[in-house]
Specification:
- The chain has twelve helices and 19 strands.
- The strands form six sheets. Strands 14-15-16-19-17-18 form a six-stranded antiparallel sheet. Strands 1-9-10-11 form a four-stranded parallel sheet.
- It has about 500 residues and is α+β, with helices and mostly antiparallel strands.
- This is Maltase A1-like isoform X2.
Amino acid sequence: MRDFGYDVSDFKDIDPIFGTIDDFKTLTQEVHNRGLKLITDFVPNHVSTDHEWFKKSVKRDGKYANYFIWHEGKRLSNGTVVEPNNWLSAFGGSAWQWNSERQEYYYHEFDPSQADLNYRDENLRWEMEDTLKYWLDLGVDGFRVDAFAPLYEVQNVSLDEPISGLNVPASESDYLKHIYTTNQPESIPTLSKWYDIMNEYVQRDGQDRYMIVEVFSTVDIRNRVYVTGACPFNFDLLHMSDAPTGREILDTIMNEYSHLPTGKWPNFVLGNHDSRRISHKYGSQYVNVYNMLLLTLWGTPTTYYGEELGMLEAVISWADTVDPAGRNAGPERYQNFTRDPERSPMQWTPGYQSGFTKGNSTWLPLALNHTSLNVQAEKESQEQTTLKLYKELVALRKKQAFQTGKFKVSHVDDYIVCYTRESAFDQYLVILNFGHSAISDLGICGATSATVAALTPGVTSTEAGQRVQLESLILESGHGVILRLDLRT
């Protein structure tokens, strides 16, 4: 738990703080009993230095000797041994750590307690394939592949990575262009093999399996992932400017649609455990309109827990910081790197520890507003809430127009993004105001009148089920509305 479980010490067991393998089997069965699917995290890039493989590799024990990226280092003219190159860890500082027992450096893309695996070793590749089969045999329905981009490094580790030119300290990851440590060509064939293994289980029992890949990269890299059969996360919406215009938002979406390989299915992400919450990035008044965007696009929406409530971030002091990315940056710069604020506990109730635990403390401090912003309060409110809207949007996604219907842009400007989702059976108009002031005369979106299907909290000029004239409809900043249109005859 040096990096919250991403420092895996055993690929085929459950950490006792979470339960046992039998507990996991029960969970899987209960999930399936409810008609749901269970996807597990697969962390293939690295393991904990507490892992048995690493301990054996340190001792050069048989096949395990080359399971990791080892190097004797570079000897200077004065006899001093230093790191073999200038590679930097994503968490800051050198990506090489000296091991005194083996008398060599090992490579770590992340924390020094997370040693990178050597995928050029055939035995290691077999071990990871066997890991996938283990969990598929336990009944999981797919995998989220973690940290895919750094899976391989170039073989020639004497190569220094070029300087990026960015104005950051020389110890920070962004100081270099990571051309030798990310997105190497060997990664795609390895991913294809993993997908083929998963597909073998599909052929056996006819049950769907799904593989989604964490890769922060450009559309061309994503498309290479699509070719394997797996789906890459599209994180582009996470990396927009601080106050994106309607045009920037739509351009980001259309960049995916226009480059998507034929027959492939897109997905979009607006929040995750490595990114600031919507309420922090854009302001809490925009949470609902972004949720409405995410759940009405063509493709799979990925929601980070708490965004369906509009959760705010917790204020995390240096003393309470546990994220290694933040700790490694030091007390003066930790806030630029820590991922703790968006990882505060889920807010269930206004009661003790917000219903997250009965224990004396939570793993991170709760957000300050947890007594007023929580699941119970939003469910019991007499008013429209973020959670109620989210449930309405989920219900709308059962309509064919939002599942497989066409996506057509009706209007876009600096404030407004407006599009239709339509099938042969239903047609909807989505109007979203990402601007900083109210918008009236929404006839610009291509319709004159329609029936309100859903609207964000605070829209006072109409209500769900009401027939409205678009010329008289007013949308305040951060509001949105979904209108059911009359089918064309």
